Amino acid sequence: MSQTVDRALSILPLLAEGPADLGQVADRLGVHKSTALRLLRTLHEHGLVYRQSDQRYRLGARLFALAQQAVENLDVREIAHPHLVALNERCGHTVHLAVHEENEVLYIDKVESRYPVRMYSRIGKPVAITVAAVAKLLLADLPEPERRALAEKLDYPLYTSRSTPHATAFLAELAKVREQGWATDLGGHEESINCVAAPIRGADGRLVAAMSVSAPNVVVTAEELLTLLPLVRRTADTISREYSGTAIPQ
């Protein structure tokens, strides 16, 4: 039975390359045409493959519908939360998870610092979009025309002397973030708070969320916080693999 399932599933990536006839499927699987036909008929009955008028087979609409339904039902917060908690337990600092929705970047999860000095951020609250590390990551992933149009519409409040002052500087920062694959906010929103952030990606490579670690200067310096960047990026990569379904089962 397991061999039959394995062979049937092997047909799907073959057809993802383009339509194939019975002989091509049989050759790829290394089986007789009668066996390949039996597998194709089963997949066809479930809507996972479709037989065209030229007798070649392609992927069926049901497969795309299932994939779309699975993506829509994914909850990045649920998947990420245990990893955010583990990161917090390891480093002790505040950990955030944020998403980009309707021209705002919102915190959707937070694990509090173990230290007495706490941040005032709240789940469901928009971030300071022109300076927050998570916002830079999420906006840097937008296509260039969208990035430029958004940058031109934003206000640029000077929270501190390190805040992003205007659209030109913001676009330059987003280009840098897009190239390096991570972001920081070193006193841009609050003089005493520093933050490092890493991206969480879906199966298509696009960002679905961003996570960050933040800490006040009285706990760690900016340089000390930056040493956590490899750990933050590894955590984000782990969440990305689990979210996209490419994680290796333990």
TrEMBL record:
Keywords: DNA-binding, Transcription, Transcription regulation
Keyword Cytoplasm: no
Coiled-coil ranges from the UniProt annotation: none
Domain IclR-ED per the UniProt entry, residue ranges: 62-245
InterPro entries: GAF-like_dom_sf, HTH_MetabolicPath_Reg, Tscrpt_reg_IclR_C, Tscrpt_reg_IclR_N, WH-like_DNA-bd_sf, WH_DNA-bd_sf
Identification of the protein by name: IclR family transcriptional regulator
PROSITE patterns listed in its UniProt record: HTH_ICLR, ICLR_ED
UniProt keyword Glycoprotein present: no
Gene3D superfamilies in the record: 3.30.450.40, Winged helix-like DNA-binding domain superfamily/Winged helix DNA-binding domain
Superkingdom of source: Bacteria
Limits of the HTH iclR-type domain: 2-61
